[in-house]
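re: ur question from yesterday

yeah so i grabbed the chain u mentioned. its 258 aa long if i counted rite. heres the sequnce exactly as i have it in my notes:
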Amino acid sequence: MRGTGSRAAALAAAAALAGAAGPAAPLAAQVIRSYEALDRDAGDRFYTTLGLSLDASGGNVEYTEFEFSGATGFRGERHFVRLYPAIRFRRNDGVTLEQERSAHLRHTYALTERLRTFSFVQYQSDEALDLERRFLVGGGLRRRLIDLAGGGVDLGIGVMWEEERTATEPEVEDFRGANLLVANGSAGSVDVNFTGFFQPRLDDWDDHRVAASGTAAVPLGSAWTLTVSARWRRDARPPPDIERDDYGIVVGLRFSID
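ran it thru and got these structure tokens back, copy pasting raw so excuse formatting
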């Protein structure tokens, strides 16, 4: 849903079609959320995107996960400001077992057609990861390296300050790299996005986080789009009893209103 004017979208997810790529890791190492695919939906000037995803499982493991998410912002000739809120619940027999909250505020300023600044503030909490609070503030530069049909390849290099508190460890503060590689494009009518992150602690690069995610969006008419997203994330030094790797696949439907 790109173009001029305000845009609104509702994401009705059919995540029960997939939910996870094989047996998911029992506890994720950490959460690096990617918003690049949502940026592809941003129209000119003011826009809003609303989302709902559902993941249900039965048999040996029975649970239901709901995630409510969205994006709202303003895209001008040089400035691009957007807010991404999200909240996730895992419920079993009416009891909330896990809960994740996040909010990401991001600003981009176009210095030239190929060079942009980026700055962000982010808040996260995740009961499944024993993460009581993570607060990020950062920024950097992002440059277009290669032009592709319907997009291109961008490299971003930045720094962020992180404050983190878990249920098992004392509060810590670190400076980390905020580096990303983004590839957007189109293959026929299919819109494709790939995002990779590398976040090393600046005083100890052995303590790093790596993530990769990809989304393919296939139009099913003028308003509906089928989306398939895959992700993999690794934390080199996760909290005690938390796995290093996290991975999964989600299949959903997106409905756009122009």
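noticed a couple things. The two ends are 7 Å apart (CA to CA). also The domain at 7-257 is CATH 2.40.160.40 (Porin).
anyway ttyl
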